Amino acid sequence: MNVCCLDMEGVLVPEIWIAFSEASGIPELRRTTRDEPDYNKLMKWRLGILREHGLGLREIQDVIATIDPLPGAKEFLDELRKHSQVIILSDTFEQFATPLMAKLAWPTIFCNTLVVGEGGMVEDYRMRCPESKLTTVRGLQSIGFETIATGDSFNDLAMIRASKAGFLFRSTEQIIADNPDLPAYEEFDDLLDAFMAAL
Question: d(Cα 56, Cα 36) in Å, to the nearest integer?
């Protein structure tokens, strides 16, 4: 039995931190896992910027409320779910993801959680498990599933390579160039065809 494992930001929805960077006028927050391979380093840096500017969870959630799925993402997801179990594996946080999952008809998502203090300031974050995407794919495989995965960033490469089939989707030129053996797609129709061929 197959499980399709999808990244969320950049694949199904726009990058939350980029949207928040634009809304807040803080260009440094545009940096994402497409730019920085070390997720913990990236998150600690982000939290430092939030503290510096006195911004908390509410301000980020206000921006997330304005974000819609990428054009064609819900239709792609709806069609894929007719043929396979689908799990979204994301390094985002449940406090960010919930309103976006509502707009995608509540697919299953495994993600992390923020530690929010008094006044709504983000104090820390808790990862669900180390190397969460790869660990989850390996866990699924250990109980008899085969995985097919897609993503766009550095933190997706391990789960893509550990799966029986994997694809890059709307990734960066650098990541695509550094991984020439991985099929790379730009359109949801082509990505769906790739998943269907692998099922």
Answer: 23
With beta carbons less than 8 A apart as the criterion, state whether 5 and 160 touch.
no
Residue range 167-189, pLDDT digits in tens: 999 999 999 999 999 999 999 99
In sequence order, what are the residues at sequence separation of 6 or more whose Cβ sits closer than 8 angstroms to the Cβ of residue 38?
A: none
Choose, from 7, 15, 91, 152, the residue flagged as catalytic: 7
Catalytic residue among 9, 15, 91, 152: 9
- Residue 193: how many CB atoms within 10 A of its CB? 12
- Do the beta carbons of residue 148 and residue 199 sit within 8 Å? yes
Domains of the chain, residue spans: 2-16+67-198
Active-site residue flag, 9: yes
170 to 72, 167, 188: CA distances (angstroms):
13, 10, 10
| 189 flagged as catalytic | no
Q: What is the pLDDT of residue 98?
A: 95
Q: Kindly report the pTM of this predicted structure.
A: 0.94
Instruction: Compute the distance between CA of residue 144 and CA of residue 64 in angstroms, rounded to an integer.
Output: 36
Confidence class of residue 118 from pLDDT cuts 50, 70 and 90?
Answer: confident
CATH, domain range 2-16+67-198? 3.40.50.1000
What pLDDT, on the 0 to 100 scale, is given for residue 34? 86
